[in-house]
Design goal:
Distance between the termini: 92 Å
Protein name: CDP-alcohol phosphatidyltransferase
Structural class: alpha/beta
Number of strands: 13
InterPro entries: Alkaline_phosphatase_core_sf
CATH topology of the largest domain: Alkaline Phosphatase, subunit A
CATH class of the largest domain: Alpha Beta
Keywords: Membrane, Transmembrane, Transmembrane helix
Shape: elongated
Largest sheet: 9 strands, mixed
Number of domains: 2
Helix content: 40-55%
Radius of gyration: 33 Å
CATH superfamily of the largest domain: Alkaline Phosphatase, subunit A
Length: about 600
C-alpha cells in the first residue's frame, strides 16, 4: 500500500468518517490513478443517489412511468387526421393495451423484454405513419402510401428549400430524422418500462387486466360512448389494417393499370385522321397551378377571383374572343401537379406515382403528342417549374422544352415559383410564339405563380418593361414573407386568391396583346389548393375554359353545354379529368382507331 493510501486509511480509522464517494477507489483500481467512468461505476453512483434521496427517486420513477404510460396510450389512440385531434379521441380504452398486458404477463423475463421492445418499436412506427397521414391528408387529400410516397418526401424537402431556403430545409430534414429515431427508441423503452411494472405484482396486474378486458367487451357490446366516441377502441389495429390494405391495393393496381394503359381509343389512328378541325390553328394548353373550384366559390376567396374572371371575359370579348367554361374533377388534390397534367393529356386516371411512371414509359397517345403525330404542328413546352432533367418530354411528344434556366429570367424567385407568370408568357412570345414559322404551333405552358405558399405574390407591370425580369426585384422584396402564412388559414386564403387573380390576368392580357385570329387557348387548373385553403371536404373540381376568335372552334363543343365566358356556372357539367383527351380529340374531328392490349 502506498504512503498516501496508508495515510488516508489511518485518517479514516482515527476520525470514523467515510471517504467521500468522489474520492473512493473502485475495486481493482490502482489508488492515486484516474479511473474511467465505467458503466458499473455509474450504476453504483445512481443507486447511491437513490439511497440518499429516496423521495426524489420515487417521484422521478413514478413521473417517468407516468410519461411512458401517457406516451404509449396516446400512440394507441392517436387519430390520423388533424381535424380528429380532439379530447374525446383520448377518452377511450384501447384493446391493444389489454392484449399487450396479457402477452407480457404470460412470458418469461427475456422474451418479455424482447416482445415489449418490439411492440414499442412497432407502435413508434405506427405513430410516424399516423403523422405522415395527417400531413398527406392535409396537403394532398389522401393518406400516406407506404409503397409509393417515399419519393414525395424528397419533393417536400425541395419545396421547403425553394420556398424558405436551404438552411431551413436542412434543419427540417435533420429534425424530422432525429424525431423519428427518438420516437422509435423512446417508445420501445416506454413499453419495456411498463412491462416491468406489470410483472412486479403479477396477481394484481392479472386482475386489473381481466377487469379491463371485461369492461372493453361490455362497452363494445353495448356501444357505450363518451362525448360521441365509443369507449372501446381498436384504433391501432385498425390503422395497421388500413396501411396493409393500401399496400395490397397498390400492388394489385400496378398490374391492372399497366394493362389498362395498353388499350387506347386513338392508339392506331393515323396522323392524317387526328384533329383535322384544328388545322391551321395555334393551340395553347395552359395549366394554372392550384386553380380550383374553391377559388370561384369560397366566400372569402371568390369575390376577387369572380371579379377578375368577369373583367377578363369582358376584355377578351372586346378583343374579339369568346370563351366557354366547365368543370373537371382532378386526379390529385393539394399538390403533385404532374398527376393532373398527365391525367388531362393521357386520358387515363393517374392518381399516384406508380401510375405516372407506368404511363410515362408507355406508348399511350398523349394529347400533345397527337398534334405532333399529324405533322401539321410544331410542338413546344414552356416549363418554368422544371429545374432538372425532364425525360417526360418524350412521352408528351414535345419538339422543344424550355425549362427554368432557358427562359432568360434574371429576376428574383417568388418562393417556390422560379419566375412570375407574366414574364413566362412574355418569354414564350419572345422565344417561340412571336417568331415566324412554317407550321402552326401547339404549346403546353405551366404557370407557377399561384403555387403554394402564395407569398410573395407578383404584381403586374407594363409588358414593355419586363426586360430580363429584374423589374420584379422591388416587388419581391416588398411582398409577404412565406413564414407569415404557414399557420394562418385566413391570410393563406387571401394571398391564394390574389395569386389566382394575378395568373388569370397575366394569361388573358397576354392573349389580348399577342393572340391572333387563329389562336385557340385552353386553360385549366391542375388541382385544388390544400385543405387549409380549400376547406375540409372540398371537391377536387377545377375550372376549364376554351377561348378562341374563330366561332367554329367553340361551335364544335356546343354539345358540351359549357357556360359562356371564363366563369363556369355552379351547375355546369363536371367531367373526370381523364375524359378530356378523348372528348377533345372527338370534338375536333379525330377518328377513333383503338389499339388493344
Amino acid at each position: 500500500m502506498s504512503a498516501e493510501a496508508t495515510a488516508a486509511t489511518e485518517t479514516t480509522e482515527a476520525t470514523g468518517d467515510a471517504v467521500p464517494e468522489e474520492h473512493a477507489v473502485p475495486d481493482g483500481a490502482v489508488p492515486g490513478e484516474k479511473t474511467p467512468g465505467t458503466l458499473k461505476a455509474r450504476l453504483a453512483h445512481w443507486r447511491s443517489w437513490r439511497t440518499r434521496h429516496p423521495a426524489a427517486a420515487r417521484a422521478l420513477s413514478w413521473t417517468t412511468t407516468g410519461l411512458a404510460a401517457v406516451l404509449v396510450y396516446g400512440a394507441l389512440v392517436l387519430p390520423n387526421t388533424v381535424n380528429a385531434l380532439q379530447y374525446n379521441r383520448f377518452t377511450r380504452l384501447p384493446a391493444e393495451a389489454i392484449v399487450g398486458a396479457v402477452l407480457v404477463l404470460a412470458l418469461p423475463r427475456r422474451p418479455r423484454v424482447v416482445v415489449a421492445a418490439a411492440c414499442g418499436t412497432l407502435l413508434g412506427a405506427l405513430t410516424v405513419l399516423n403523422l405522415l397521414d395527417m400531413g398527406f391528408i392535409e396537403y394532398l387529400g389522401r393518406g400516406f402510401n407506404l409503397v409509393l410516397d417515399w419519393g414525395l418526401l424528397d419533393d417536400a424537402q425541395a419545396y421547403v428549400e425553394d420556398s424558405m431556403g436551404r438552411a431551413t430545409a436542412l434543419g427540417a430534414a435533420v429534425g424530422a430524422v432525429v424525431l423519428v429515431v427518438l420516437l422509435l427508441v423512446v417508445m420501445a423503452l416506454a413499453t419495456v418500462r411498463l412491462s416491468n411494472l406489470l410483472v412486479r405484482d403479477t396477481r394484481t396486474a392479472t386482475r386489473a387486466t381481466l377487469v379491463a378486458g371485461t369492461v372493453w367487451i361490455t362497452c363494445s357490446s353495448l356501444g357505450l360512448q363518451v362525448n360521441g366516441m365509443p369507449i372501446a377502441s381498436d384504433r391501432a389495429g385498425w390503422a395497421l389494417k388500413v396501411q396493409a390494405r393500401r399496400v395490397q391495393e397498390t400492388l394489385r393496381d400496378e398490374a391492372a393499370f399497366a394493362k389498362e394503359a395498353k388499350a387506347d381509343t386513338f392508339g392506331n389512328t393515323p396522323g392524317s385522321e387526328l384533329l383535322p378541325d384544328l388545322r391551321g390553328k395555334d393551340v395553347i394548353f395552359t395549366f394554372i397551378e392550384s386553380y380550383g373550384r374553391s377559388a370561384l366559390e369560397d366566400p372569402e376567396i371568390a369575390p376577387g377571383v369572380d371579379q377578375t374572371l368577369d373583367a377578363s371575359t369582358e376584355a377578351l370579348e372586346k378583343a374579339g374572343y369568346r370563351a366557354k367554361s366547365g368543370w373537371m374533377t382532378s386526379a390529385t388534390y393539394g399538390g403533385s401537379s404532374w398527376l393532373g397534367h398527365s391525367t388531362t393529356m393521357s386520358g387515363l386516371w393517374i392518381d399516384n406515382q406508380q401510375r405516372y411512371r407506368t404511363v410515362m414509359s408507355s406508348d399511350h397517345l398523349s394529347l400533345t403528342k397527337a398534334f405532333g403525330k399529324t405533322g401539321a404542328w410544331d410542338t413546344v413546352g414552356i416549363m418554368p417549374g422544371v429545374q432538372k432533367g425532364w425525360p417526360e418530354q418524350e412521352y408528351y411528344g414535345l419538339d422543344k422544352v424550355y425549362n427554368a434556366f432557358q427562359l432568360g429570367y434574371k429576376g428574383p424567385k417568388f418562393s417556390w415559383s422560379t419566375m412570375p407568370d407574366q414574364y413566362t408568357l412574355e418569354a414564350f412570345q419572345r422565344l417561340v410564339h412571336g417568331k415566324k414559322r412554317d407550321k402552326p404551333l401547339m404549346s403546353e405552358i405551366i404557370l407557377t405563380s399561384s403555387h403554394q405558399p402564395w407569398a410573395p405574390v407578383p404584381k403586374l407591370v407594363d409588358w414593355d418593361e419586363l426586360g430580363d425580369g429584374s423589374v420584379f426585384g422591388p416587388i419581391q422584396k416588398a411582398g409577404v414573407d412565406p413564414s407569415e402564412l404557414l399557420t394562418d388559414s385566413d391570410r393563406s386564403k387571401e394571398e391564394y386568391g390574389k395569386s389566382i387573380q394575378y395568373s388569370v390576368t397575366s394569361l388573358t392580357q397576354w392573349l389580348e396583346r399577342y393572340g391572333t385570329d387563329d389562336t385557340v387557348l385552353v386553360f385549366l387548373g391542375d388541382h385544388q389548393p390544400i385543405a387549409r385553403v380549400s376547406g375540409a371536404g372540398a371537391s377536387r373540381d377545377v375550372p376549364v375554359s376554351i377561348v378562341a376568335k374563330d366561332p367554329k372552334v367553340l361551335d364544335k363543343i356546343a354539345a358540351w353545354n359549357w357556360t359562356d365566358g371564363l366563369k363556369p356556372a355552379k351547375d355546369a357539367p363536371v367531367w373526370k379529368m381523364s375524359s378530356f383527351r378523348d372528348r377533345f380529340l372527338t370534338a375536333y374531328g379525330s377518328t377513333p382507331r383503338p389499339s388493344k392490349d
